[in-house]
Amino acid sequence: MGANIYRNKKPAFVFLxxxxxxxxVLLYYPFFKTILNSFMxxxxxxxTATEFNSPWYANYExxxxxxxxWTSVKNTIIMMVVxxxxxxxxxxxxxxxxxxxxxxxxxxxTVFFFPIVISATALGLMFNLIFLYDKGMVNQLLExxxxxxxxxxxxxxxxxxxxxxxxxxxxxxxxxxxLVTGLNNISDELYEAARIDGATALQRVRYISVPxxxxxxxxxxxxxxxxxxxxFDLPWVMFPKGMPLKSTFLTGTYMYYHTMETxxxxxxxxxAVLIVVLGVVLAKVVNAIFREKDY
Amino acid sequence: xxKKKKFSPGLIVVYVVLIIxxxxxxxxxLWVIQNSFKAKDKIxxxxxxxxxxxxxxxxxxxxxxxxxxxxxxxxxxxFISTMVALMVVLLAGMGAYAxxxxxxxxxxxxxxxxxxxxxxxxxATVISVYQMEFKWGIASTGSWFLNMVSVILPQIAGNMAxxxxxxxxxxxxxxxxxxxxxxxxxxxxxxxxxxxxxPLTKPSFATVAIFSFLWSYNDxxxxxxxxxxxxxxxxxxxxxxxxxxxxxxxxxxAAVVALIIVPVIIVYCCLQKQIIKGMIAGAVKG
Lengths: 295, 286
Fold this sequence. Notes:
The structure holds two protein chains of two kinds.
Chain A: H1 2-5, H2 10-37, H3 58-65, H4 67-99, H5 105-113, H6 120-130, H7 137-144, H8 159-184, H9 188-196, H10 201-212, H11 214-229, H12 233-238, H13 251-261, H14 265-289
Helix pairs in contact in A: 4-8, 4-11, 4-13, 5-8, 11-14, 13-14
Chain B: H1 9-35, H2 40-45, H3 59-67, H4 70-101, H5 107-117, H6 122-136, H7 144-172, H8 177-184, H9 189-200, H10 202-218, H11 221-226, H12 235-246, H13 250-281
């Protein structure tokens, strides 16, 4: 019967056409055009490239010698480790704790999640005030605790921390909610049985919650690593142009810097290709490490 | 209840840790809001004091409204995000219906094209999209409307694949009997979609709409390419620009941040269940 309604296939194409038009014209075509642009001579956004670079792979050659590329790749990988360990790690601890309390579950869920809803740009402005040298919230707090001299949170050496801490902080609640949902799916009878057998709260977490959460933790890890590649807004607002001394560039912000600030658009395109390659490779690696298990 | 326990030292530690993390998410926002009512030198002297008595001033907000076109930015942002959410729901819904119900040659290829489309980060397409739209004459023109369209188009495309995956899954789970009944009554495929499928898919549409809206509303990267004239700034562009220009006027910065964050918090408190659901569902998107 169902087959009868849908035997005439013509409407299917009408239904699919607009969605596919958008994806082909505004995703697939521009992506291949970006690859092409990375070999062309293009120094103005919006202009059409007419000639190839000489040699055509000049941008990729330059990339190898550009110390900022290495800085940004290195920072991006640090960012991945931070998001993986910081976001997912803290989220696991918080989720296990919330799962074991009686009152206030809904409250913590609401409160932990809400930084994600706020734009990273606004949060960047907020953290600029919080980490102000003379004197934002953190330095005033340290002063109250008896610290004598002020810390310049944007100085070289500590800038990476100042940039990554807010990014990490913002998304903890996201993984927290995913993990709490996973914990809710574990049946109460398992905990009950363990309790009757005399397992302590910590043992129940170690031998029931964590193993049964394995797949959810894997999903979170993959999301955290791929998410780290897309971080842009907050670092750009707090540390525009990779300041200080171009030491805080991420692959995304460095690509933006060349495209918008130095008008080296073709080099920006080459960096965009690098981001995609990096993303594909890292997704493969992470998938191999955190392969889901069947229980 | 099996999980409810009496108060024990361990439980107190757990609550203390949870409350500390909750403070790290709540207090910075309160801190900014309270300082938005204080003069700059008072913020630097003691930012923890409440803005009462002599400390209280609304000068920051007056200056914020004078130096920035905050209403214009809200107008642009709300227009862009609403259009993106509506178009994504409409077009992705139609596509998802076809994918869920029709069997046609090449549907495997179509599916892998959709999965592939989720992998492109905005970095990889934005240069060429700008180039193309510039050639079409819609990017960087004097017209407010065309500038909005130039942002809306790539943002629709960016959310399309994700929305189709979510909606296809949902429509597949709907009982086909209702469609059969409508077919018996003489409805054609389009009437079935608009009269039967769309009303039934509302919960999933809400998820997709919320995610697309928030993603577009909070985006700085794409918008900063297409909205470069101050009178066309969206909220994120306006914030980015004001922070570069007036970053040392701390009182006003606090006021601007408060003006942007507070409405979002109010909406979040009203719709938190749907918002959390939408954001989690959107996690798979590239």
